[in-house]
Amino acid sequence: MAAANNQRFGRSCEKLEVIDGQLNLDFIFNEAEALTETLYVVEPAGEDVLPSKKKKQVGKREKDLEGLPVVEIPHMLSEEKLIEIFGVNGWKRLPDEVYKRVKVEPAVYTVEEHHVAVYAGKDNQTIVKADRPKSLLRNSIATPSLVASIYNAKYVNGMPLDRINKEYLRNDIHISKQVLANWVIQCAERYLGIMFDYLHKELLTFRILQADETPVLVTKDGRPANSKSFMWVYRTGKWYKETPIILYEYQKTRKTEHPREFLKNFHGTLVTDAYAVYDSLDQKNPDITFAGCWAHGRRRFTEAVKAIPGDKRESTKDTIAYQALKQIAAIYHLDNKLSELTPDQREQERQLTVKPLVEAFFVWAKDIQQKNSLSKGKTLEGINYCINHEKNLKEFLNDGALPLDNNATEAALRTFCVHKHTWRLIDTIDGAKASAVVYSLTETAKANNLNPFRYLEFLLTELMEHQEDTSQDFLKDLLPWSNQIPEICKIKTKA
Prior knowledge:
Elements: H1 2-9, H2 31-36, H3 46-49, H4 60-65, H5 79-86, E1 118-120, E2 127-129, H6 144-156, H7 161-170, H8 177-203, E3 208-220, E4 228-236, E5 246-251, H9 257-262, E6 268-271, H10 276-284, E7 288-291, H11 294-306, H12 320-336, H13 343-371, H14 378-388, H15 390-394, H16 407-423, E8 426-428, H17 429-447, H18 452-465
Parallel strand pairs: 3-6, 3-8, 6-7
Antiparallel strand pairs: 1-2, 3-4, 4-5
Helix pairs in contact: 6-17, 6-18, 8-17, 11-12, 11-14, 12-13, 13-14, 17-18
C-alpha cells in the first residue's frame, strides 16, 4: 500500500544519494580502485575546488540574439536642445550607446490570392491557362505552412484541435475542428506517411535499436469502451547521436506480432524492458539479440526504499533494497565515466572496471534469494527480476555501443505521454495512425536539432512537388541530417 500510494502521490524521481563518499564495496574490491582503475583522472583546478562567485559570461546576450532580424530605433536630441546645452557648434557626436530588447508579434495570417492568366485564341476556341502551383489538398485553402502550424501546435505543443480552433477564431480565422482533423489525417496519409516509411527502412539498417510502448485510448476502434490500445516507439541506439531516428507505431494490442512485423528485417541488438513479448520474439528470431534495462531492475528497489515511513528512514541504509541500489549506483557511476569514449574503448573499460561490479551484484543477489528471508514485496520482486534477466542485463558488457538502460526510449515517449493527459483519447484509428506518423517526424526532427514547424513545412512543400514521382530517390535529401535541409530549419542550441 505504501508503494502504491507513493507511486500515485509521491515524486517520480528515482534519484537516490547512495554514493556519498563511501561506496562500501569492500566485498568487491577497494573503493578507490573501483573508481579509478584504468581511468585517467584529471586533477581539478583551484577555482573548481573553491569556486568563487559565478562571473557573467561576456557576449552571451549577443550570441543568444544572433540571427534574429534587427530594427534600429534611433533616439536623438533635437538641434535646438543641443544648442541650449552646448551652444552653437559646441558639441561632437560620440559612438551611440546601444542596448537591445526583444519584441514579439502575434502570428500573422495572410491570404494568398492566386491569379491564373487565361488566354483564348482570336481565330478559334482554344483556351490556355498559365501554369499554377500544385495544391496540398484539392480545392482546399490548406498550405504547407498552415498545416505545419497545426501539426506543431498539436504534436509539439500538445494543444487539442478544439483549442487550436479557438485560437484561430480569436484571430478571425474560421476553420472548424472537423476541417482541422481532416487536414491532419489526409496530409499524414498522403505526404508524411511516405517519409515515415523511408525512415523505417533507414531505422532497420542500424545495428542497435531501442523499443518501448505506452497505452492509449482510441474510442472508435470496434471494441468495447475503455479498451486499451498501444503506441509503440522504436528508436536508434542512444550512442547514434549523428543520425537519430524515433518512430511511433499505433497498434490495437500489445501482442508479439507487432514488434515482429515492424522489426522483421532487423539484424542486431534490441534494448528493451523485460516484457514477455520481447522474450518470445527473441526465441523466434535468431537475428535479434536482446539487452536488458538496468533502470527497470533498479526501479523496484527504489519503490521499496520510498515506501519506508518517514519515522523509520534512519534504518533505510540497513535494508536489502538500499544495498541493491548502492551497488547499481556504483555500476552507473563507473559506466557514466565512459560516455565520451568510442564504443571499442568503452567495451574494454567495461570489461575491466564495470564487469566486476556486475558480477558481484549477481553473486550477492543470488545469495539473498537462496536465503529465502524476504517476504513478498518490492524488494523480492527486484531481486527476482534481476536474477531472471541476468543474461540480458549483462549484455551491455559485451558491446560498447549498447546503453546501460532504455531511458532514451522512455524520453522519446515522454512528449506523447504528457500530451495524452491533455487530450485524453484519440477518436478514430485513422487519427491514431496519423498521430503516430506526425509524432515520429516531430520527435525525429527535435532529436536532430531541427525546428519541427520549419521541418514539417519544408517536408510538405517538397513532397507536394513530388506527388507524381514514381521514384523515391529524392527522399534521401529530405532526411533530417541531410545537407539539403534549409538553414532556416536548423536551431542553434538544442531545446
